[in-house]
Write a structure and sequence with these properties.
Blueprint lengths: L6 H6 L4 H15 L5 E7 L2 E7 L8 E6 L2 E6 L20 E6 L4 E9 L2 E8 L28
Antiparallel strand pairs: 1-2, 2-7, 3-4, 4-5, 6-7
């Protein structure tokens, strides 16, 4: 497997260290394909992340959002049964998947059905950042008469 060295990028740019860190973590995540996942855009400001977690129960999964980082962890309980497998193709290993979220993206819902963990996300811009229309007044303004307050 080939690893990428981002140290020249850190030396040549100032203030973009977060971007280099994102590239580095994306390259590391690409190396581990377990568990597989989909990212879907469901509306203009809505998204869904689906992760294949067959064999995991809800209590074995943990979803956490901290500082624009969505982390999904799966921790299987120790399996001490005495079954003898002829072939074992179902992965029951622990995992951790991280997704960097854009600003103002929040998790709205998480559901587990048919072996898929679906996490719904929505981009919620604050009112101060939403575009707004400014009305333009037309016509003449009346001169102020002394003693009247401006309207």
């Amino acid at each position: 497997m080939r690893t990428l060295d981002f140290s020249p990028l850190y030396r040549s740019v100032v203030g973009f260290d977060r971007l280099a860190g994102l590239l580095e973590s994306a390259a590391a995540d690409a190396a581990s394909g377990y568990p597989p996942y989909n990212i879907e855009r469901t509306a203009e400001n809505a998204y869904r992340v689906e992760i294949a977690v067959a064999g995991f129960r809800p209590e074995e999964l943990n979803i956490e959002v901290k500082e624009n980082l969505l982390t999904v962890q799966g921790r299987k309980a120790a399996n001490d049964d005495q079954r003898r497998y002829l072939h074992r193709g179902l992965a029951e290993r622990n995992f951790e998947r991280r997704f960097q979220l854009a600003d103002y993206v929040v998790v709205t819902e998480a559901k587990l059905a048919d072996g898929l963990l679906s996490i719904s996300l929505k981009r919620e811009l604050p009112e101060s950042l939403k575009p707004r229309r400014i009305d333009i007044a037309t016509g003449e303004t009346k001169p102020l008469i002394e003693g009247e307050a401006a309207a």
